[in-house]
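I am writing to request your help with a piece of structural work I have in hand. Thank you for your consideration; the sequence and its tokens are set out here:
=====
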Amino acid sequence: MRGPAEHAAAAGTAVAEEADRDKKRRRRQNRRSKQTLVGLPGGSCSSMDSVYGQPPEWLENSRGGAGGGGLKVGLQKAFNVGFSSLPAMHINDEGDAGGMTAGLLPCSVAGGEISRSCPLPNSSSPLKDPMDATAPWNTAKKYFAPYWSEQEVEEAIEKGKAFKATFRVNAYNSLEAYCTIDGVPVDVLINGVAAQNRAIEGDVVAVMLDPVTSWTRLKGSNVHGNPVLADDSNILSEAREVVDNKCAGKERLDANCGCYTYSNGLLPLDKRCQFNDNGGISEVVHSNPGNGPGISNKKCIVQQSNPPENSNMQAFEQGEAARALERIRAMINSYPSKRPTGRVLSIIRMSPRRGAVIGFLSSRKWLPEGEGYGNLVSSHVSKNKNLVSLSDEDYIQLIPTDPKFRKMVVTVGSLADSVKKRLKNGDTTVEKELVAAHIDEWSEESLCPQARVIHILGRGGEIEPQIGAILFENAICAAKFSTESLACLPDVPWKVPVKEFESRHDLRNICTFTIDPSSAIDLDDALSVEIISDEIFRVGVHIADVSYFVLPDTALDTEAQIRSTSVYILQHKLPMLPPKLSEEVASLIPGADRLALSIIWDIDRFGNIKNRWIGRSIIQSCCKLSYEFVQDIIDGSFDVDQPSLSGNSGPQLHGQFKWKDVFESLKSLHEISKKLRDIRFKDGALWLETAKLVFLFDECGTPYDSLLNERKESCSLVEEFMLLANRSVAEVISRAFPDCALLRRHPEPNFRKLKEFEAFCSKHGFELDTSSSGQLDLSLSKIREKLKDDPVLFHILISYASRPMQSAAYFCTGDLKGRENDWAHYALSVPFYTHFTSPLRRYPDIIVHRTLSAVLDAEDNYSKKKQNLLGAYKGEASGSEIASRCFSGLYFDKVAAESEEGSQILSAAALKFKVPGTEVLAEVAAYCNERKVASRHAEDAGEKVYLWALLKKKKVLVSEARVLGLGPRFMSVYIHKFAIERRIYYDEVEGLTAEWFETTCTLVLDILRNKRFHRRGSPRSFRAIEDVALVLNPLELVVPEKEKKATEAGCGTASLTSSGLAENSEIYPIVFPLVLRHLSAVPVALHAVGGDDGPLDVGARLYMCSYFW
């Protein structure tokens, strides 16, 4: 007779076999090749419990929360957010021998040791392993190992036997996940369902590494033709990060800081400052205005604390962890072609994405494990068409739109009454509606997480439900501002109070104007210039003083902090601040007196800064200019006396200044900005800018066309002065408050990926020096000149160059005390940088404004006590010579700041303006990083929705593409028209042969001409050729009349196109056999995929022509 363990193994085998079949069916539908699910528990691995068992004392720990893994761990520091590489994109699918069999681990791992060849330090009292094979067997059917307890995980991390990391899933293969461990140069692969142990995208997990013998080969080392692409297939660029959609062009270079690893969600600052439990898109929980979140009683005052009694023990334990990392690094250096693998021991902190699941419901009944696990039963009986009754206890499937999530189950009883009624009536249209859900539980006994639906968003084929899904998925607040927040706003119309004229510098007599996109209404920055002499220009950057209106510890501040950033999705704007403030009271509207924080530099004609003044001011903008208008002025398209300037179509001029004053100011600013830009790049700055996709909308808000918008000089003009302002403020606040300044850092690129990019360029005949950001930029400039006749290839290279780049992020200087070199911004090549110039749409800028105000207040108070300080500035900034300031001038008086009197004055100012202390500021920075990533992801996802809508309207759109990666199963192509990459799978296609020549990295595609293709096995094993290529018969092709006449006259070549395709007059179809190599040009046919019947996407097929099909 079989024992309990054997029964469990047999049952698990049956489950795995059914899951295997379902997996194959799903992969065929998604144009994927077959892969066996060897890693599934219960397959070749038998039962988890038969190997590990589960001691009863851990049973309760394994069932807490959504899956039972939550350990109480504080908020992560800002500089640990987002600095990680992304999963590999596998072109050849090689080298993962240990991947699918990594579900169960050798006993040496379970015992807490990586391997005998790479042992971790052993403690005098070995850790108790919850997965010890000697534990009593539990005969209940379980598919996952129990989570380790909080105490065991903490002890394992301290001893260096486990490591804390963020869990990231490969979007192309959810069985592959990756974890980045601080100090380990290569991401750790978590391969297989069992090894992943119920972790999902964004979870912070405890990971134990496998023995070195189980490590797999690095996929990038096997990919031919495109080593860079192989490691980063699913990268979200931070391009245009600073300017966003609202201010295309401002501070653009901070945008070149690389690639975010997406981890959307909310990082709550305290219990009073969170989104609600329904996924975080509607209501805001407000705190008592007297004690708002994000502001601690611990202000920016350095305090000495006594070392703990167990400091020696802690130092020893930290030493153990450090030695373990050293051994791992040494092993990686010994095996450079191998990637470490590991398994998840426990969930330390659950990802916010557990509460933000978007998907489609199935209308069919799903049977639990005991009744044929994973089977879907049709809700109709074929003979009599009677309905199969669905009870409240029955399960149906939830299929997430995000491929990083596994399929989930939902109880019918948990659904809204209207949905239940439709399901019980057999209404299959339920399957076409997007739903928002959260994960309730994922127990050891289930291979699928159990979810709960909380919103029905609408039809998946419509734009607005898709936008709603994006907002829900990224926890972006779409609700109206609360009554409490609106009560904090001043009455409209608002005028500058008289007392502000007494304490601020009046700069209204200077010609000042804003430059923004033509549609912008939240104007938070303005420029001015005065000619002091033939050699000196006095340039001013004036930023709306938003911190004057958004006071700490108020409901308005709380809500602004929660929103953190304005989100600009096409045709949708979700502001951080109420429109009454961001578009009226605080906005620098032309002709209105406004409060500002101003920075004024004296700059010579060579671009050298001679002096600087920073202070609170009152300004009045004379006009609102658009980038297009300024570009026309730069190009000389406008005459000062042109009549159209005084008409209603152009910008309106306010106040005492004439258009001649504005034109002269713009020309001066343009010349100065070019000097500043030259100096910046000589100092080592890096430029990785690409064209931006812009959609054209009809009167109904539907996209009808698109174009790539190249960057204008007018954008560079504004950008240079915004960058200079941010650098200046960063320098001031970090020197005055070295422990609690909010800065923005950009670490150096990933070394391995940068070397791969260098090798890629060398292979294709391009010289690349990656020794510094400046040398990299110089090399790219030379390549740009070399490829001036092939701009598409250069855009591809710029895309590749962005991939090794890490993400820029906010951080608190106190977190990196003693590591000032880590404060630097790689792309800008500056030691200090922050965000100061957009307080209407970024919460970090408000924090920086408060900190700067504290510095200015302390400076004034110190000057009053030290009247003998030289250069005390008392006159107006516009007319008198700017004098040195002890804290905000070009030369920082460190002696004054560190003196007893100066330190006391700075501390008092920090308390007055409620500058957050180090711990709180680190939490604010980390949260703002999370929200910025979520905002960028939402904006990119919104762009994808509108591209999908455009293609859906056009049916099919043919475009040129370049081959980025090739392999035996699929190719990756870059479509320059939309600046996107797509995969085309050609394996197992009926009537199509694919020959891959590995030595020459060549692919040959052809169709069978003489006889029909004979399938082996199941008739569903092969896909139709129409899934891979749009094949036209030459008889269907037509010559456009204009081109026909031109050809007859000998003026050109006519293009053969199909009359039924959109915008194809210049695209030729290609013929079989098709021979492709890396970077080959190939035409593709784009079409909309999904919507009502699945996740929306942009599909790409080869555009072919053949008589034989």
User: Anything to note?
Assistant: The chain has a mean pLDDT of 78. The radius of gyration is 31 Å. The chain has 24 helices and 40 strands.
